[in-house]
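Subject: mismatched residue count in predicted assembly?

I count 228 residues in my input, but I want to confirm that the predicted structure covers every chain. Input:
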Amino acid sequence: AQSVTQLDSQVPVFEEAPVELRCNYSSSVSVYLFWYVQYPNQGLQLLLKYLSGSTLVESINGFEAEFNKSQTSFHLRKPSVHISDTAEYFCAVSTNNAGNMLTFGGGTRLMVKP
Amino acid sequence: GAGVSQTPSNKVTEKGKYVELRCDPISGHTALYWYRQSLGQGPEFLIYFQGTGAADDSGLPNDRFFAVRPEGSVSTLKIQRTERGDSAVYLCASSLMWDSNEQFFGPGTRLTVL
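Triage response: the counts match. Full output below for your records.
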């Protein structure tokens, strides 16, 4: 079985500051890693994913995440946040031999202040 | 194109009643997933379908929960004898194939059991 831990339930940050949202996972098999974002009153949207290859993956809106196998982490970073980044962020894992169902962390609420 | 849709968006019921929640996946997607998101938590897997059959129902909490997908498209999650602890947002997701690595989520149905 897999599990995902998001260490911070809330992260307040000022606009244009950098941010890191932490995610650690545990699994006995190889995993695929995902970050989903949930804006207020909207559904979950895929932000970025790691399947294989380069351990650094990027989204179209400036977020990036790095897969670190030795530390079993997949932290999400952005060098300069905007007010519009305010949302709930969920880290998730799946394994190819489990029908790709996702195991989610508890979520981190990113609150960007002006 | 149309995304995953779920109806109703909100459902309020009384303890002990029966409810049905509907999911319309993206056209052509063969895999369909149900998740449950309780307040302040990440989504938890309930069941997934590949075509018409339930390939994995290990996440269903007890035998009051049941889901069907008779024609391999629309799915219905059925909850009998609802309890207050069933209150949550029920999310549906679909993907092109079971081994596709992106699930597209619907907006969810918020179930409140009084």
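Chain B touches chain A at residues 4, 31, 33, 35, 40-45, 48, 50, 55-56, 59, 91, 93, 95, 98-108 (CB under 8 Å). Marking this ticket as 'not a bug'.
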